[in-house]
Design goal:
The protein has 550 residues and is an alpha/beta fold. Helices cover 20% and strands 18% of the residues.
């Protein structure tokens, strides 16, 4: 067999990032003829056991063009390579060929509130907030946003269906229902693995306490308790005021009366109101940050300093937050992150880096990364195949809509996909899976098998819930353009390239969005005082821009 040719994509073809090297593309010897009907994938042969998928495989270290992945009868990946023909069971497996399909790990939504999933977006118009308690409780004279719980079992199932339709196989969502996606903080659908501890109010401040200094919160978590968790996922510093930063100080040992919970098994949700020194603390302990750009931007006009985090080697996971102020599914959150990256961050993150934020890094955040989040031998076959007919491999994920999701497998079991593919993979396709038209594409969704309810019954129970999917931009979708009245518009223009309200002539990061925050005394953050802002400084903690050892 001829040796595969390996190509390194040009540095200039995709934006380079500290942790996300340009993707390596391996051209395998397998040459697939286009599908006669023009579809991305076709059923080449039906076997007696197992599954082989051939296409562009988004493996951890490379894109295997014409590569193969073998799924065994145990629901685990038996091979990922250019040639898997020697793998046990290969000859007896059903074979799906995807000449224009992109095979990815199943997407993982690192942050949602699925018991609020029935809500349509709620808007405060142009008003922006400095802390979550302002919109939650109407503090500081701000407009309170009413977001009722929609925690009924059928509404939660509806929310999980919405995620599966977008290629999601796992959710960290503070709740869940049996079947469909894995709920990594509840029932992980057969994974014998300790659930993540999801904590919305780690300081016991659900009644809306705003504290600018000191740690007199109702309840601080015990450091030993956090250490004993498999993974601990607290909401911290959701906002841009001093009260938001104070939360981190009280949970990182930063002042009198504080506890220190920052460690490797912690993934901090939101992390908007942090300084470079705070980020250094997170990095030094090997913790993770979970980013929800659409919700952050629509509520606060700001979002987390993700370029700073990345320069300090902090892994960044991506999550939707919820439908009230965030994205309807992880694909729309990826779309927001991609747009914000291109328009406001100078294209800092590569396509591969953004994709990892919705696959490998969320798995790491919940410490499920030995089982899910990647296409590697021995891992569970949580796989999503995307239509890549008009897009390069990673962009086939970043720009996908529901119609572009060709197949979704959880542990090798089909949950959703093109009608012909689900029929080939699922033995109960007729009885456990139902036909559904997704934006003109004939799909099959395995609702009955997974929930015990028909799709018709769930539609009936969710007549007032936000829809399952949209064929264009979702109705009343919250903005992904950062803005605050009388401060900045988030839209680049002559003299203010990044739209952060600071003229280029005095902007310490003229091409990376970094408006002054209330917590920074109305100045652009520059921890080391060298005149280069933290979000664009190669050495954010050491004066100068070279020799810092990062």
């Amino acid at each position: 067999m001829p040796q595969p040719t390996t190509l390194l994509l040009s540095f200039f073809a995709i934006a380079a990032t500290t942790l996300a090297d340009p993707a390596v593309v391996t051209k395998c010897a397998t040459a697939l003829a286009p599908s006669p009907d023009g579809t991305a994938c076709r059923v080449a042969s039906r076997g007696s056991a197992g599954l082989v998928i051939v296409g562009s495989i988004l493996a951890p270290a490379a894109v295997l063009e014409g590569g193969s992945i073998v799924v065994g009868g145990d629901g685990r990946i038996a091979c990922v390579d250019c040639d898997c023909s020697a793998t046990a069971g290969y000859a007896a497996a059903t074979r799906i060929e995807c000449p224009r399909g992109v095979v990815s790990p199943g997407l993982i939504n690192a942050h949602d509130h699925i018991t609020f999933t029935g809500n349509s977006p709620v808007s405060a118009g142009s008003e922006r907030y400095d802390h979550r308690h302002e919109w939650r409780k109407g503090k500081n004279g701000k407009t309170k946003l009413t977001v009722p719980s929609t925690s009924g079992a059928d509404v939660v199932r509806w929310g999980e269906l919405r995620q599966v339709l977008a290629g999601t196989t796992s959710i960290i969502g503070s709740g869940g229902a049996d079947g469909l996606a894995r709920n990594l903080d509840r029932d992980s659908e057969g994974l014998t693995h300790p659930a993540a501890d999801y904590e919305t109010f780690p300081l016991g401040d659900s009644s809306g306490q705003l504290i600018a200094s000191g740690c007199s919160y109702p309840a601080l978590p015990g450091a030993d308790t956090v250490s004993g968790e498999n993974s601990y996922l607290p909401h911290i510093s959701e906002g841009v005021g001093v009260e938001a930063r104070n939360e981190f100080l009280c949970l990182s040992g930063g002042q009198a009366g504080a506890v220190d919970i920052v460690r490797r098994n912690v993934a901090i949700t939101h992390s908007i109101g942090l300084t470079a020194k705070d980020a250094e603390r997170i990095a030094s302990q090997g913790a993770v940050v979970t980013w929800s750009p659409r919700s952050n931007i629509s509520l606060y006009g700001h979002t987390a300093s993700v370029t700073l985090f990345d320069r300090l080697r902090i892994p960044i996971a991506l999550g939707t937050d919820w439908t009230a102020s965030g994205s309807v599914n992880i694909l729309r959150e990826l779309r927001c992150a991609d747009e914000f990256n291109r328009k406001s961050l100078g294209g800092y993150f590569s396509d591969a880096a953004l994709w990892r934020m919705a696959t490998a890094i969320p798995a790491r955040a919940a410490l499920f990364n030995e089982s899910i989040g990647g296409l590697k031998t021995g891992m569970l076959a949580d796989i999503t195949v995307f239509d890549g007919r008009t897009r390069t491999p990673h962009r086939a994920v970043l720009e996908a809509g529901p119609a572009d999701v060709a197949l979704v497998l959880r542990g090798g079991t089909a949950l959703h996909g093109e009608d012909a593919l689900v029929r080939a993979v699922a033995q109960d396709a007729e009885t456990g899976c139902e036909a559904i038209d997704v934006c003109g594409s004939a799909k099959r969704l395995c609702v009955s098998r997974e929930t015990g309810k028909t799709l018709t019954a769930l539609r009936s129970a969710n007549g007032s819930s936000y829809p399952l999917f949209f064929c264009g931009d979702p109705d009343n979708e919250p903005t992904c353009v950062p803005s605050r009245p009388n401060e900045f518009t988030g839209v680049g223009r002559s003299g203010d390239a990044d739209g952060d309200g600071v003229p280029d002539a005095t902007d310490n990061c003229p091409n990376v969005f970094n408006p002054p925050r209330p917590m920074d005394n109305a100045r652009q953050a520059d921890e080391d005082g060298d005149g280069v802002g933290d979000v664009c400084d190669p050495c954010p903690l050491t004066a100068g821009t070279t020799g810092c050892g990062l």
